[in-house]
Design brief:
By secondary structure, the protein is α+β, with helices and mostly antiparallel strands. It is 28% helix and 22% strand. Helix 5 (124-133) crosses helix 6 (137-150).
Length: 174
């Protein structure tokens, strides 16, 4: 109890909390759950896009039309979480795709799970280009971590990825 109390006090003052993103892929379908600002990206041969929406003050402002998505990337509210693990009053877990439906995987793709140490510093286009520039998925993930760190990421950079099928990785024109 004496160990937990200081952390609880910190949390109430906005000091700590952690995020989570999980993906279940099965038989050509997927579901993603997230809490906080860790994300899942769907990467195909032509682009990468976030499947999830962040639980942050900045994303809330984007949803309300008070801020553009570009402005949210640089907002001081981008790291202010509206839901996270460890919150004493319960958490909000979003499931994607919305509407209690499974997402369909009908093409070769990569499902990339990552922390804001990556997506806060590396653009969606850079995620796509960097992953597909490497011959192997593990090398692409290592290259993304290196890129985030080179760009000055000050947060932890965590990545997990799963490839379904085989994208044209290591293409000369990338």
């Amino acid at each position: 109890r004496s160990t937990l109390f200081p952390y609880t006090t910190l949390f109430r003052s906005g000091g700590i909390g952690t995020t989570l993103v999980v993906c279940l892929a099965r038989e050509g379908r997927y579901l993603v759950g997230n809490v906080g600002d860790s994300r899942c990206y769907y990467v195909n041969d032509s682009t990468a896009w976030p499947v999830t929406e962040d639980h942050s003050r900045a994303q809330e402002m984007v949803r309300l039309g008070a801020m553009t998505a570009d402005a949210a990337q640089h907002s001081p509210f981008r790291n202010e979480l509206t839901s996270c693990l460890g919150e004493p009053h319960g958490i909000v877990v979003d499931v994607f795709p919305r509407g209690n439906l499974w997402g369909v995987i009908d093409e070769d793709c990569i499902l990339l799970l990552c922390s804001d140490g990556l997506h806060g510093w590396v653009s969606d286009a850079e995620i796509h280009t960097t992953l597909l520039a490497e011959r192997h998925l593990a090398a692409g993930c290592d290259a993304l971590i290196d890129l985030a760190l080179k760009k000055g990421s000050t947060d932890n950079v965590s990545i997990a990825a799963m490839e379904v099928g085989r994208l044209e990785i290591g293409r000369a024109h990338v």
